[in-house]
Structures are given as C-alpha cells and as structure tokens.
Amino acid sequence: MELKEYFETVKGTGVLATADKEGRVDVAVYSRPHIMEDGTLALIMRDRLTHYCLQSNPHAAYMFIEACPGYRGKRLFLTKLREEEEGAEVAAQKRRSLSSEEDAERGPKFLVVFHIDRVLPLIGPGD
User: Fold this and answer.
1) 15 in Cβ contact with 29 (< 8 Å)
2) Where is this region: Disordered (predicted)?
3) Residue 126 lies in a domain
4) Model confidence over 85-118: pLDDT tens digits?
5) Count: domains in the chain
6) Which domain, by its residues, includes 98?
C-alpha cells in the first residue's frame, strides 16, 4: 500500500518529534499527515514548540501507531523543505472544522512540507 492510501485509510495516532538547534527535544501528538502528489509529506501546525524547533533544525521523526491490537504502524524520518502560513494550501489540506472564532483564538496555522528520508515499520529494523 502506498503512503498516500495508507494515511487516508488507516486509523491511528501520530506523534511528531523535533529538536531545536541546541538539541532540546519536543514530542507532540499530530493527526495523520497529508501525502502530497509529489511524494512529500505535509502537516498543519500552530505556532507552538514544534514549529519553533523546525525553524532552527529541519529534521523530524513522525511515528504512526495503528488503532488495532498489537503494535503496527510506521516511523518516518523527515527533513523540512518549506512552509506556508494560512494560505490556500493550508485551507485545502485541513480536515478539522472549527468556527472562525475558535480557529482565530488558537493562533496562526502553517502547512509544513517535508521530504520523506526513510520509512520503517513501527517495530523492527525494516528492510
């Protein structure tokens, strides 16, 4: 199964790990990523600690744990390519719907696009 189809159909929990330029680590729960037509991965994020870390260190790891018995899922190793703030691309990719007031209270959103450097299974070394 290709990654685009996988993340569109499989339910589960995502976790994104980043570190700032000093190596201080952050881990946050994230929704399923968007796999773009060009094979890149995109996440929508607010201007919080994870976004801050990505300003000085473009590397991140995303772990997806499938909602099923046992431990299945994927680990993706990522490098940030670019980001866009609150534009048409952000609106096109968002899955959750908040009222405009709720959305504004939470602060600006960014669509952060990553190159997928490596994909491994949740458990084990992979191929």
Assistant:
1) yes
2) 86-105
3) no
4) 876 555 554 545 656 666 566 668 899 999 999 9
5) 1
6) 3-121
